Amino acid sequence: MIKIYKNLLKKNKLYLQLFSFYSLSHIWIIFLSNSLFWDDWHLFITNPEQLDLYWKMLGAPIRGFMIKSLFPFGFYSFRFITFIVIFINGVLLDKILKRIEIFNENNRFIICLIFLIAPFYIDRITIICFPYTLCTFLFFSAWYLRPQKKFLSFVLFIISFSTNSLLVFYALPNLENFYTNYSLERKSILRFLKNNFIFLIVPFLYFLLKKLLFKPYGLYEGYNNWFSLKSLFLTPFYQLIDTLDFKTSFVLILPIIVMIFSYVFYKYIPLKASKTDSKYSRLIFIIGIFSLFFGLFPYWILNHIPSFGREWMSRHQLLMPLGISLITSSVLSKFDLSSRRVFLALIVSISLIINVSNYFDLIKDYKKQIEITNVMSNYRIRDNIDVIIFDDQTKSFNAFNRSYRYYEWQGIINNAYPNKKEIIALNSINNLEFLNNLFNGKCQKIYGYKRINLPEKINVSKIRISKQENLTNASFLHKFFNLIFYKDFHNGYQIQETEFGQIKRNDLFEKSSNEWTTKNSNNFKCMID
Questions:
Q1: Among 460, 404, 417, 416, which residue's Cα sits nearest to residue 436?
Q2: Helix, strand, or coil (residue 387)
Q3: How far from 49 is each of 52, 58, 445, 520, 528, CA to CA, in Å?
Q4: Which whole-number Å values give the CA distances from 476 to 26, 236, 520, in the listed order?
């Protein structure tokens, strides 16, 4: 038994090392097991029938099914599966690279390590982004299985295309297949086209079927349909500016922390001397550039910036890690082994610090939501309130200094006052026009509102959220454990009504906007009552 254990340990040593580094970066997602952020609240406050309509209008019923099927198992199931399948993606990537002769063991380790811990796609923690995570897992599974189990691979690829950016990324499995099994000779190219015809046309068939069967309509007509060559050329420059502007809350002590972690990680990076490390570095670099382009193209052409600094925009970084890891591996292979270990230790340290910083920001945000809900549940509001507009003076406690959306406030209100679910929460008085449009189109239930109609005279209360901290006697460790385990040591949140008044519904004009949600709500009538 001990011998079997040792053999398994030796055989999977590389994956255990990768898992150790990956866990240091992302195990913190477990502390967010029951949290809700951003559009997660929309899923929470809206009934299942209305959510089905929402996913149909969005043209994404498969993504809706992926979320709906896990809801009975609790929110923690999304975070646990996310943590596991992204690591499995790294394992599958290693097995795929093994099939390609240009990648030796050192190359593969560096690529898979950076692929797993690079500080991209922190939006993985949200439930609404879970289908993106699951689709990438299905994609890499299909890629790995393609040589042996073509039919299963074909099916998995089709399901994975529910995340539409994978339609472009799909070029990579085809290029890998051509490189490993064919040549540039005319006969070989024709044989490639003949043998792989179905696999080559599947993204085009999927795109056509989506246009015919799953075209967004209603409130979401035109969603993700604003292709622009101008955006394709301009967005990369905005991407560069965003990268240069990237900041972390550890910026002041970053150099010291990096030095400490780099010294530790240097000893545990298992690189071995090899003469073939840089043999194909130029080719790996080119593959990395193409991989990065294929991962960014679907977002750039829609004018989406895979951003670090903007809230919930890192979901557009979903496909960046592979290209970045290939490019980094290629560059590092040009250095001698000792220097390579040093640089890789620096990269690991910086990635770890940024990831942990992001997770702690999110944990702090989650803790704030819990505390505000508790304080509000003990705060007596007026009996005749129709709409509460929140003035949040504590945004520094929000992850990434974001602002809460109106449906996030709606979820908090619903939790704080379970018997007063007809109260509508907004984050700005400017949202009243949009709210009026929703009720005119009988689409309010899509956004989780329980009211059937808005009154002719709307009673509006403005509530300010503020905070007074008492951290004088709190040590660093005390703060750390209170943050992790959600124990309140300051009770600093305060709630106060600052204004109250009435607004006539007839005074609310239709809001003129270029946003597709607002624009379409003026004309579309929802069918479900």
A1: 460
A2: strand
A3: 5, 14, 10, 21, 8
A4: 22, 41, 50
Buried b (16+ CB within 10 A) or exposed e, 198-213: ebeebbeebeeebeee
| Helix (H) / strand (E) containing 98 | helix 75-98
Q: Rounded to 10 degrees, what is the CA torsion of 314, 317, 321, 324?
A: -110
Closest CA to 449 of 424, 480, 476: 424
> What is the spatial distance between Cα 281 and Cα 145, in angstroms, rounded to a whole number?
27
pLDDT band at 230 (very low <50, low <70, confident <90, very high): low
Whose structure tokens read 């040593």?
13
Lowest mean pLDDT among 175-189, 281-295, 306-320: 306-320
> CA-based angle 58:63:65, to the nearest 5?
110
CB atoms within 10 A of CB 300: 21
Q: How far apart are CA 24 and CA 26, in angstroms?
A: 6
Q: In what helix (H) or strand (E) does residue 20 lie, and over which residues does it extend?
A: helix 13-26
Can you point out the beta strands (E) in 314-456?
387-392, 424-426
* φ, ψ (nearest 5 deg) of residue 502: -115, 140
**pTM for this model (two decimals):** 0.82
